[in-house]
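Researcher: Quick test of sequence recovery. C-alpha cells follow.
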C-alpha cells in the first residue's frame, strides 16, 4: 500500500509534458515560437501543420483551434513583426539629438543593420522577398514595411527631408543596400569585396552607411 501511495505521489508531482499544456496563452506562444523557429531554419518549403505541432510539442488540432490553420499562423507571425520592430528598433534617440531628418535616418539605418544581423528569421523573410512571389511572403514583407514606416512617423515629429529629395525612393535604396550587405555577409562573410567577419569590419560598414545617409540628407 505504501509503495502504491508513493507511486501516486510521484506521478502527481511529475511535471506536465509540454504537449499537454492547458494554459491557452502559453500554448499559443509555444506554437508561434515554433512556427518562427521552423521558418528561420527551413523556410516555407517544410512549413506545415505537422512540423509546427512537433516543434511546439502540442496536438496539431490546437493550431487549427487557435490560429485557424497555416494562413492564420502566418498572419500571426506578420503581426509579431510589429513587435520585432518595437523590440529591436526602440522609440528613443539612443542619446542622439535628432535635429534633422538626416539624424533620424542615420539612427534608423544603423538600428536596422544591427537588428537584421541579429535575427535569422528576418533575414529569411528578406531573402524570400527577392526569390519568392507568394501570398505568404507578401504578407510578412508588408507587415515589416508597415512597422518600419510607423517608426519613422512616430519619431520624426516635425522633421522633414531636404527640399527636392524623394525621401521614399532614397530610403528604399538605403534599406535595400543594408539588406543586400547583411545577406551577402551571412552567406560568405563579405559583400562586393568588403570583408565582413569581425566587429571592426562591421564598424567600417556602419561608418560607410552613415556617410551615405549624410551625403543625401546632410
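Model:
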Amino acid at each position: 500500500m505504501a509503495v502504491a501511495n508513493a507511486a501516486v505521489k510521484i506521478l502527481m508531482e511529475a511535471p506536465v509534458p509540454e504537449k499537454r499544456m492547458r494554459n491557452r496563452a502559453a500554448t499559443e506562444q509555444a506554437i508561434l515560437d515554433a512556427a518562427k523557429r521552423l521558418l528561420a531554419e527551413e523556410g516555407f518549403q517544410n512549413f506545415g501543420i505537422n512540423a509546427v505541432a512537433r516543434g511546439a510539442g502540442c496536438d496539431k488540432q490546437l493550431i487549427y483551434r487557435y490560429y485557424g490553420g497555416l494562413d492564420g499562423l502566418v498572419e500571426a507571425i506578420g503581426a509579431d513583426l510589429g513587435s520585432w520592430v518595437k523590440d529591436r528598433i526602440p522609440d528613443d534617440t539612443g542619446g542622439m539629438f535628432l535635429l534633422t531628418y538626416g539624424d533620424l535616418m542615420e539612427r534608423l539605418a544603423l538600428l536596422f543593420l544591427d537588428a537584421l544581423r541579429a535575427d535569422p528569421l528576418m533575414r529569411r523573410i528578406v531573402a524570400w522577398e527577392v526569390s519568392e512571389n507568394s501570398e505568404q511572403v507578401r504578407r510578412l514583407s508588408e507587415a515589416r514595411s508597415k512597422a518600419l514606416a510607423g517608426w519613422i512617423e512616430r519619431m520624426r515629429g516635425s522633421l522633414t527631408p531636404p527640399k527636392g529629395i524623394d525621401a521614399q525612393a532614397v530610403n528604399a535604396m538605403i534599406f535595400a543596400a543594408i539588406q543586400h550587405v547583411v545577406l551577402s555577409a551571412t552567406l560568405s562573410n563579405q559583400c562586393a569585396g568588403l570583408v565582413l567577419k569581425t566587429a571592426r569590419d562591421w564598424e567600417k560598414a556602419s561608418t560607410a552607411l552613415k556617410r551615405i545617409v549624410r551625403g543625401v540628407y546632410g
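The CA atoms of residues 82 and 145 lie 9 Å apart.
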